[in-house]
Specification:
36% of the residues lie in helices and 17% in strands. The chain has a single domain, classed as Peptidyl-tRNA hydrolase (Rossmann fold), CATH 3.40.50. α2 packs across α3. The longest helix is centred in the last third of the chain and has 22 residues. A 5-stranded mixed sheet has the order 2-1-3-5-4, with helices on one face. It has 5 helices and 5 strands, in the order βαβαββαβαα. It is an alpha/beta fold. The model has no long low-confidence stretch (mean pLDDT 93).
Length: 162
């Protein structure tokens, strides 16, 4: 039997956060649910806890579903990457992302996959990063991110052979 990958999209609970940059992980999971060629071994999950407290939820899911930590894939927004840019890493630090920091702290390791998807930085210094990440994507921005999803999926499939 083929071992599963757990793709976990980070975000905040509640309707007021839907469509925001910080809930990009949730949005990606919703989009991946529509991919007809998504590997059957990929299990998709959206966190239900607050972003900065994601670690306990991921730790509990890991125990409940009894999956290999090296098959964990955390999907999240990344302000240090330009809109539409992405990186796939294994075993890297949080780069200051508090949701990822929480997961590393709770699991006691950084040995899991991360899909870092760029949302860019605010144009205006006055807006501030926190307000920016909690603001909603424009239609154009969502189209940009949607256009890169097949590339992310293909690259991850290539890297993992799945």
């Amino acid at each position: 039997m083929e071992e599963k990958y757990w793709l976990i999209g980070l975000g905040n609970p509640g309707a007021e956060y839907q469509g925001t940059r910080h809930n990009l992980g949730h949005w990606v999971i919703q989009q991946l649910n529509t991919f007809s060629d998504r590997p059957q071994s990929w299990r998709l999950y959206q966190t239900q806890s607050w972003m900065n407290q994601s670690g306990m939820e991921v730790k509990n899911l890991l125990k409940e579903k009894n999956f290999n930590l090296q098959r964990l894939v955390v999907i999240h927004d990344e302000a240090d990457l330009a809109l539409g840019d992405f990186r796939i890493h294994f075993g890297r630090g949080s780069a200051g992302h508090r949701g990822v920091e929480s997961i590393i702290r709770e699991l006691g390791t950084k040995n899991f996959w991360r899909w870092r998807i760029g949302i860019g930085r605010p144009v205006s210094v006055k807006q501030g990063l926190e307000n920016f990440i909690l603001s909603k994507f424009s239609e154009h921005e969502l189209r940009v991110i949607q256009s890169i999803l097949p590339s992310i999926v293909d690259k991850f499939r290539f890297i993992t052979g799945k």
